[in-house]
UniProtKB/TrEMBL annotation:
<feature type="transmembrane region" description="Helical">
    <location>
        <begin position="462"/>
        <end position="490"/>
    </location>
</feature>
<keyword id="KW-0547">Nucleotide-binding</keyword>
<keyword id="KW-0067">ATP-binding</keyword>
<dbReference type="InterPro" id="IPR051343">
    <property type="entry name" value="G-type_lectin_kinases/EP1-like"/>
</dbReference>
<feature type="domain" description="Protein kinase">
    <location>
        <begin position="522"/>
        <end position="814"/>
    </location>
</feature>
<dbReference type="GO" id="GO:0005524">
    <property type="term" value="F:ATP binding"/>
</dbReference>
<keyword id="KW-0808">Transferase</keyword>
<keyword id="KW-0418">Kinase</keyword>
<dbReference type="InterPro" id="IPR017441">
    <property type="entry name" value="Protein_kinase_ATP_BS"/>
</dbReference>
<keyword id="KW-0812">Transmembrane</keyword>
<dbReference type="InterPro" id="IPR024171">
    <property type="entry name" value="SRK-like_kinase"/>
</dbReference>
<feature type="transmembrane region" description="Helical">
    <location>
        <begin position="12"/>
        <end position="32"/>
    </location>
</feature>
<keyword id="KW-0675">Receptor</keyword>
<keyword id="KW-0723">Serine/threonine-protein kinase</keyword>
<keyword id="KW-0245">EGF-like domain</keyword>
<protein>
    <recommendedName>
        <fullName>Receptor-like serine/threonine-protein kinase</fullName>
        <ecNumber>2.7.11.1</ecNumber>
    </recommendedName>
</protein>
<dbReference type="InterPro" id="IPR000719">
    <property type="entry name" value="Prot_kinase_dom"/>
</dbReference>
Amino acid sequence: MSSFDFTTIHGSWLHPFLLFTTLALFPLSSVAQNISINESITATENSSPWRSPNGDFAFGFQQLQSNRDHFVLSIWFDKIPDKTPVWFERSSYRVPRGSTLRLEARDGLVLRDPQGSPLYNTNIIRADEAVAQGSIQNTGNLILTATNSSNILWESFNHPADTVLPTQTIEMDQMLISRKTEADFSQGRFYAGMNDSGNFVLSSKTAPLSEIFDADYYSSTTSSSNNENTSNSGLRVEFNETTVSLSVVTSDGRSLRTLTDPPPPILGAENYYRATLDFDGVFTVYHHPKIFEGNPQWTPVQWLPKDVNGICTITGKMGSGACGYNSFCMVRNGRPVCQCPQGFSLADPNDTHGGCKSDFVQNCVQGEDDECELEVLDDVHWPEHDYERLNPTTEQQCRDACLDDYFCTAAVFGGVSCWKKNFPLSNGRGNSPNSRVFLKRGKPANQENVRREKSEKRDQKVLILVISLVLGSSVLANLFFTGAACFGFFPARDIVRDSTTTTTPRSNLRCFTYKELAQATGGFKDELGRGAFGIVYNGVMMLMPDDSRTLVAVKKLDRVAQDSEKEFRTEVNVIGQIHHKNVVRLLGFCDEGPNRLLVYECMTRGTLAGFLHGNVKPGWSQRAQIALGVARGLAYLHEECITQIIHCDIKPQNILLDDNYTARISDFGLAKLLMLNQSRTMTNIRGTKGYVSPEWFRNTQITTKVDVYSFGVVLLEIISCRKAVADAEFANGENPIITEWAWECYLEGRLDSLVGSEEEACSDAEMVERFLKVGFWCIQEDAALRPTMRKACQMLEGTIDVAPPPCPFSYTFICSET
């Protein structure tokens, strides 16, 4: 490793990595002390943390720069400017201002929010001993000791976050987990720990909800199969304080393998050391001088894997790979970095590993070369999840095959083979010689169309100016006559209101003319779908200042003449104020004469129904992410909107998928509003067979629980890829009603039948069962037993336990048999 250029490191990749601690956290001053029972710290800028006797470490709250009203509970190096965290409480890392941490005899450290609700505790379960005090050791270890005893009841070294310190070990049941980003303390995608075989491994889990890890990208090869005189029991990783190296050792302290070499003697003993699993997956040993001038940074000494190219070649059966979807991994200056291809940008500017989104609209039409073009990327490869392979073929044939295929959004050509793919692209990697990628995108609009549309816009501006002057004069006249009437200049008379008068939408939306929408949709020819209140058409419009063309979905409300106006006003006034990643966004409307139209962003992946019941069964991890997205979208509609919304028709046909297969709830044509000062609303029966909750048929008051019921049915459908009411031939003689069939399978322990013996889902049985139980709670016949969508989200995420559900049916033979 002596050939490694530390100057290059310090000047390039190390700078953003180590500057984070200064930018992301504001440490708080302190004095050295032990922690007594009932002693507390409050999360404010001025609170004092607890220090180690030598003052090297402090424990308390550090303020997040990203949100000055949130803090992280952590232990940090206190004598250096960066105040680098070495331990933090991950599950509730965004601690609200005013929260209190208190040492209690029974539970140890207890963290409560300003309202007194518990956020975290050290969960000490010892009936025979109580906590007497706590202290920060000179090693950086926070310990809680027992009454009248030196027994350690809890210590931070046994609950590591992403860092180990000298004298600390990583036992068989412990694991380091990287952060999501340098500034985001939530769970990342990389893991370090001892596996059951006795190897210290670095692994990734690129599908966060999955219980399955991807292939290891580093292994110590210290399992008993490689060491005849060693048992796996008792093996651990030790950070030796004397040699400042990491080694796999046995229970009696015998070293099996040194993982990192000691630092060069020139560094000397007057340094701080830490080994951190960084957010990019590299397990790095750093040093920092104890005596310094200015503002020195942490410098890497050793790292695992020693060849970091192994991180970029991570290939998971599910998830996105080492980097996020639609991005690829490359090694630069000794570190793996994630990069977006040309025409793409980061989905989250603050998360380089979070994947990329396209900056263009995919508006190609099969076989029409004049509307499509291919972006070429050399030495890049997305090796997984192609849906068709052509072999042998030429490069030109590969290009033509993708252009002519409606479903092809990218093609990879390598030698004599061509692999067709569609978004999102996963497991991307750079530095792939002999690989050429063709990304399909729509061509920019031709110049003639651009000039014509700009001319039309200028004409519209002139028209708007004229209308504004006329309306302004009208307003002044109205004010005069209104004032005259108020002061008695005119005799009073009854005012008759026209019942057909429309209300101007209260949302900040673009108002289109009927002509504009007719042109955008090509005369309303390309029909996307039909609903109870109208037809949806595909269209292309210029919505952005840069005149780029955007795909839109135009909903023409013409199915029910009497009610269309009411539904139109409901949608425009309410949906125009909704902004959530799991809800389709309304872009504008048309309210011209008898014409009522809505313009939505277009979801290119179609409906969840088509996704679940197509020719190719989608993977479990992708289905699970979609289920979570639907749940979060509904929770937003029910609890986070200014005006609460009951959708009333949740079903797979009303859940759309964007380019990245993110679930987006659509079609509020059946939605009813639930004002904040109300708890219930009455309405006529709404919804679709198979998804309608029982209270619709009882003439009882309707609440958000009707959506919870429908979501439960959709969740069972997502789990099983089976329709709510199965076709006779698909049911194979079994119960065609999905709710009853799923309950039968659950009672009989036939989870494999529920997922069709799908390997990925069967290997994730714990998660499948959790989702299944949430589904049964949601479809309880008694609405009071159903969870809120917020609680359903928490149960799906695994943040709260899911109790065994009761039989959801009150009067069927199925329950009588249980």
